[in-house]
Design brief:
The chain has eleven helices and two strands. The protein has helices at 5-16, 26-35, 48-57, 63-68, 76-84, 88-99, 105-117, 123-168, 171-174, 179-192, 203-217, and strands spanning 38-40, 43-45. α5 crosses α7, α8 packs across α10 and α10 runs antiparallel to α11.
Length: 227
Amino acid sequence: MNFNVIAVLALVILGQQSPDGDQHSREQVRRIVLRSRHLGAHGIGYNDDSLKLLADELKPSDIPVLISLAMDEEVRVGVQFALASQCDNAIAPIRQAAVDHKMGFWDAQDTMRLIENFAECNASTRQVAASMRAEIQSLQHDDELRAQKEAQDKAADDARIQENAIKMMDPKRSKQLTRLEREEVYKRSLKAMGLSEDGPLTPTQRDLVQRMYRTMVLGKSESRPPN
């Protein structure tokens, strides 16, 4: 099924509005989530009864607090159930949390799947959740491609600056470098030494930074005292 853009836009708008009801504190929400666990065949965990309990105890106004707990390993799975218990109110915030890396993409998809299967959510909401799950999967793919490209670009940039640093040690080849390329090598060298032009420096460190700038960027040779 194609993603219903109009439905999602409406959910986003609703998600941006201030939900009714008092918001529980972070610790209160944590306790509610942990208290919703039940003993099952595989030990204590979350199930359909948890969803119903969470739907009764939490409100849409608690969604921002739940999002803030989404990366907390102790309650991460419980947060998915808690968000799912809020049905349509949680769909847009979950999507945004995944985009902002405040919630894992896989966790966001799992939460949408919980909404799809939660009988207390109406049929329209469950349908939108199914489409949103596919949308989040697509967003994850795009995010992974973007991260991969950034890593490749950084590696290529590092290799280029390293090659320019080697050129800088050769008087003949160093003349091939532009002012910008010299500055890149200079700044990368400072970073490798744990120094920064704008950071706190001792007098000795400041003198070193200034000498590095003169030789590496301006290409001036340091005069040596006579023997």
